[in-house]
Amino acid sequence: MSEFKTIAAHVDDLRMQLRQTSDDSIYSDKYLYKKLLDARSVLLKRELDKHRMVSDFNFMTLCLSMVPGVPVECGCTDLQCKVLVSEQELPKSLQNKYSLFLKVMDGDYNELPKGTSTTSKYLKYYKTLKKKTSWDIINNKLVVYNADFRIKSFIVKILPEDPVELSMHTFTSTCGCENDVATPTSCFDVDTSNFPIDSWLSIPMYEMARQQILGGIITEDNSNNAQSDLNAR
Q1: Per-residue pLDDT tens digits for 207-224
Q2: Which stretches within 50-164 are classed as H helix?
Q3: For residues 35 and 215, is the Cβ–Cβ distance under 8 A?
Q4: Beta strands of 146-216 (E only): which ranges?
Q5: With the C-alpha atoms ordered 220, 222, 226, 228, is the resulting torsion angle positive or negative?
Q6: Which of 72-76, 83-87, 168-172, 188-192 reaches the highest mean pLDDT?
Q7: In a shared domain, residues 178 and 207
Q8: Same domain for 29 and 71?
Q9: What's CA 221's distance to the chain center, in Å?
Q10: Euclidean distance between CA atoms 185 and 157, whole angstroms
């Protein structure tokens, strides 16, 4: 089960724990969030490396608008080398030594295999595979090979490395993470959205972050203001 708490609530809890043994005023909200984020990444990777289930609430489902194009502008004008490229950049996904924690699906939620321009090029010599659709990430954008150019979007299910990065991505009502608004919307609100972490990992996350902070060198925050700096990115 996921822990339904905002980033600010998690930062406040960590600050309260630090206050018991040290002066917490020297730590900015942004610094504390970074330590929580590092601990979360380590814990989630451990769970996934051990093939343990993590809550679907940790994942975000996005709809990326796609347009015909070329992955890298380098003199490619032949229609055969054109593919579908996402209009928006993808947020970074958590990954381990095996794979990215990211799935790409078509409009019917059929999962597409990961491929590359090289594998796509050689598949054309196989009668049963030459029309197989696959995907890759190039220059932070989703690239889909052997896709019908009439397709306007693909669905991406991602375990984001930093949920706050999603606040920098805006999507329209026809393609995004929310479909009930008429204007472009962000997929993550720093002030109101829940920070995705399984409830049983919250205490280990705090402890790991606290140990990193107390065992490290801290840069003093002399801004002397009471406002959160989480939005200053």
Answers
A1: 999 999 988 544 434 443
A2: 117-123
A3: no
A4: 153-158, 170-171, 185-186
A5: negative
A6: 83-87
A7: no
A8: no
A9: 28
A10: 18
Q: Is residue 231 part of a domain?
A: no
Residues 79 and 28 in one domain: no
d(CA 49, CA 163): 21
Arithmetic mean of pLDDT, 38-62: 88
Which residues are CB-contacts of 163 (< 8 A; sequence separation ≥ 6)? 7, 60, 188, 193, 195, 196
Write out the residue range of the structural domain in which residue 174 sits: 60-186
Angle of CA points 144, 157, 161, to nearest 5°? 105
Is 233 among the domain residues? no
> Which stretches does DSSP call E strand in 90-168?
102-105, 134-138, 141-145, 153-158
The residue type found at 111 is E
What is the model's pLDDT at position 3? 61
CA angle 75, 91, 59 (to 5 degrees): 135
* Sequence-distant (≥ 6) Cβ neighbours of residue 177 within 8 angstroms: 60, 61, 62, 63, 166, 171, 185, 187
Domains in the chain, number: 2
Which residues are 64's β-sheet partners? 154
Which SS3 state, helix, strand or coil, does residue 213 take? helix
Residues 179 and 92 both lie in one domain: yes
Whether residues 19 and 117 share a domain: the answer is no
Q: How far is CA 207 from CA 15, 50, 148, 215, 229, in A?
A: 12, 21, 49, 12, 22
Residue 1 lies in a domain: no
Residue pair 66/85 in contact by the 8 Å Cβ criterion:
yes
Residue 106 has which token pair?
């078509």
